[in-house]
Amino acid sequence: MPVGSVRSVLICRPQIPHELVSELDSQLCPSSGSTRLKLGTTQAYLVAANEPPPPHDYVQSGAFWTLALTTVVGLWFVSAHVGAILGFVRRG
Predict the structure, then answer these.
(1) Three-state SS across the chain?
(2) What is the pTM of this model?
(3) CB-based contacts of 29-38 (< 8 A; 24+ apart in sequence)
């Protein structure tokens, strides 16, 4: 289910050397300082505000949560045992 769409949008981009700036460019893209701006186009992914968000995938969220919890508990378990072994070696 796509949430948005790819569209061509107008942008203000820096002027390339030897490129002419038209009156329309000057009106829509006011220059700042020595930087001259020119009207251009690019592809953008647009999302409409009235479209509902995609449904939440609880199975994938549960898998990520399980992986995170298992990683944290596993690292704690390994570090606790490494600490116990180092303490045993230190005490002799």
Answers:
(1) CCCEEEEEEEEEEECCCCCCCCHHHHHHCCCECCECEEEEEEEEEEECCCCCCCCCCHHHHHHHHHHHHHHHHHHHHHHHHHHHHHHHHHHC
(2) 0.44
(3) 37/12, 37/13, 38/12, 38/13, 38/14
Residue 32 Cα distances to 2, 25, 28, 40, angstroms: 38, 13, 13, 17
What confidence tens digit (pLDDT) does each residue in 6-21 have?
A: 899 999 998 888 888 8
**Both tokens assigned to 51:** 């479209």
CA distance 19 to 36: 10
Contact at 8 Å (CB) between 25 and 38? yes
